[in-house]
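Quick start: read one record
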Amino acid sequence: LINSSQFIDQVKASKHEFIRHAYVIGFHKFETFAKAITVYFDGKIKGIEGSNFTKFEDYSKSIFKLSLVGDWYKFKQLHILQFICNSSKHFDGYPLSRHGKPNEFINSPEDVKIIRSPKEFRNDMKFLSTFTGKYFELFNYIMLYYDQAIGLDGQIRINKDAHDFISAGTFEPFDIEDTTSKLNHLSERIAALKNELLYPEYNNQNA
């Protein structure tokens, strides 16, 4: 038989373990989504006439210096969720990592399992939901940018090839300034979203 104090400790331990496992499920759901939309946008980018890229990730890295899948530690708040997930999955809940710790866990004793309150879990999942929406939005903006950039290259080439017809007034040139303006607007929105995802204004208050 166990006394009431031992029973309460066991119940608390079970609760904390349940919450840690919930982080594993939540973060893996996000990873699955991230990989799926990457495959989807790979198909989109291949379908654009004149495309020099076959991988959406390669274009994002080349133009915007942003790795969209896998390097989660670069996303400040997402790194915390990934760390809890990996610690729970690979180290039985102890705050250990193969890829460095987020600042929130730098001073956590490695012989004590991670404890996250129900309120913290709810806040973290709310954050993950918001992050996922903005993350998908970023994919769409980058895709729009790529489409416009390919279009601009084509417009410049056609205007150049049709110079004589333009001079003769038999061909209406493409409005390069309009396309350039759209690209500048998209670039600004992408930069803003990138910053929001990498350094979100978020503070998870302890319950």
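Confidence is low (pLDDT under 50) at residues 202-207.
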